[in-house]
Design a protein that fits this description.
It is a single chain. By secondary structure, this protein is mainly alpha-helical. The protein has one domain. About 50% of the residues lie in helices and about 0% in strands. The chain contains five helices and no strands. The radius of gyration is 15 Å and the shape is globular.
């Protein structure tokens, strides 16, 4: 069974359509984030892996191998309740939500830019998974956005 990824235009389009239905007051199904905080968290994540936001490298041999393999290729959805890093937590060091539509538009732009096939992924580093191939980056991005959209029933 094929895995969803931002590299597949139809997968990306469906993900962006779902994001367009998210509302600031969408009720969460789990976790502490509000929908608006999740939008900012996702933006921070794209900014962090592309080097436009400072993120501490917390990777180790386990996260760069086993955890990355399971997260990107595992049969199930990402689990609930995994704490994010302080730099990506809107209540600690993440970007504070301002105006929902503007923040969502910023996220849409970040996703569109990240999904370009000519990206220079060589300079990107995930704070837990380390360096990844382009196909892994596209898979990670789709999974991360999907995880938080599901968090709000979208």
């Amino acid at each position: 069974m094929p895995k969803n990824t931002l590299a597949v235009p139809a997968d990306k389009a469906r993900l962006l359509e779902r994001l367009a239905t998210l509302r600031a007051n969408s009720p969460r199904q789990w976790g502490r984030m509000t929908a608006h905080q999740a939008v900012c968290h996702l933006s921070d994540s794209f900014l962090g892996v592309t080097g436009r936001k400072s993120v501490v490298d917390r990777s180790n041999v386990i996260t760069r191998s086993l955890l990355k393999a399971v997260a990107l290729n595992g049969p199930g959805k990402w689990p609930h309740g995994i704490r994010t890093m302080p730099e990506m937590d809107q209540e600690i060091g993440g970007t504070k939500p301002t105006e929902f539509e503007r923040d969502r538009t910023d996220l849409l732009r970040l996703i569109e830019g990240f999904a370009q096939p000519d990206q220079d992924f060589c300079s990107y580093r995930h704070p837990a998974f380390g360096a990844m191939r382009p196909d892994q980056w596209f898979r990670w991005a789709w999974l991360h956005v999907d995880h938080h959209l599901r968090q709000f029933g979208v």
